[in-house]
Write a structure and sequence with these properties.
Blueprint: H1 13-18, H2 21-25, E1 33-34, E2 40-42, E3 45-49, H3 51-108
Antiparallel strand pairs: 1-2, 2-3
Length: about 110
């Protein structure tokens, strides 16, 4: 019922000094390290990240979510307007057909 949490490994100076997060936080963090230049390096990206870049990632994610939501709403509104336009085009075509029928009938009747 309750999940037992393993206590963290005791931090030793050598594990912290290595700079490798895998040594400190577990295997999920292998390859992530803070180098002597103070940048965070990831296993899949050559260039390190400055602290302000990491802070900016959270803001960019919020912006991305906002713009994706706005895009979905705009797309939904556009589809709705497209359906309305299709209905109006159909009505206009029906009106033109009715007008053509009435025009021919009116001119065929001789007084």
């Amino acid at each position: 019922m309750f999940k037992l949490i393993k206590p963290p490994k005791p931090l030793t100076l050598t594990r912290v000094a290595s700079g490798n997060f895998g040594d400190i936080h577990g295997s999920d963090w292998n390859g992530f390290e803070i180098a002597a230049d103070g940048k965070l390096y990831t296993p899949c990206f050559k260039r390190g990240f400055e602290p302000y870049q990491i802070q900016g990632m959270f803001f960019r994610m919020q912006q991305l979510n906002y713009y994706e939501r706005a895009h979905r709403e705009a797309k939904k509104a556009l589809e709705s307007l497209q359906r309305e336009l299709d209905k109006e085009r159909y009505r206009a075509e029906q009106w033109r057909a009715w007008a053509m029928v009435n025009r021919t009938l009116r001119y065929d009747v001789r007084l």
